[in-house]
Specification:
The chain has about 90 residues and is of the alpha+beta class. It has one domain. It is built from one helix and three strands, in the order βββα. Strands 1-2-3 form a three-stranded antiparallel β-sheet, with no helix packed on it.
């Protein structure tokens, strides 16, 4: 297998897609407080939940539904309360 092509500057090319899991309502990250494109989590869409998919924030599929900021805030608040309760 040949290595990935590199640009003239020596950096590997990175392609970004729109509508990835990180911004999807069905993505439940393992760490909601610090979630980023590399964060892994579960896909809880009704059609996919049975498969127990573990995806990263940069993955995507055709069942994408954009998450609202309010939902992100609620997930983070819940995670922060759970974190404080452990202290």
């Amino acid at each position: 297998m040949s290595p990935e092509p590199e640009s003239e500057s020596g950096f590997k090319r990175v392609s970004w897609q729109y509508e990835n899991c990180l911004a999807c309502v069905w993505f439940v990250p393992n760490d909601p407080i610090n979630a980023d494109l590399l964060e892994r989590g579960k896909c809880v869409h009704a059609k996919l939940k049975a498969f127990g998919l573990i995806v990263s924030g940069r993955d995507w599929c055709n069942l994408y539904t954009e998450v609202r900021q309010k939902q992100i805030d609620l997930l983070q608040e819940k995670a922060m309360k759970e974190q404080d309760a452990k202290k």
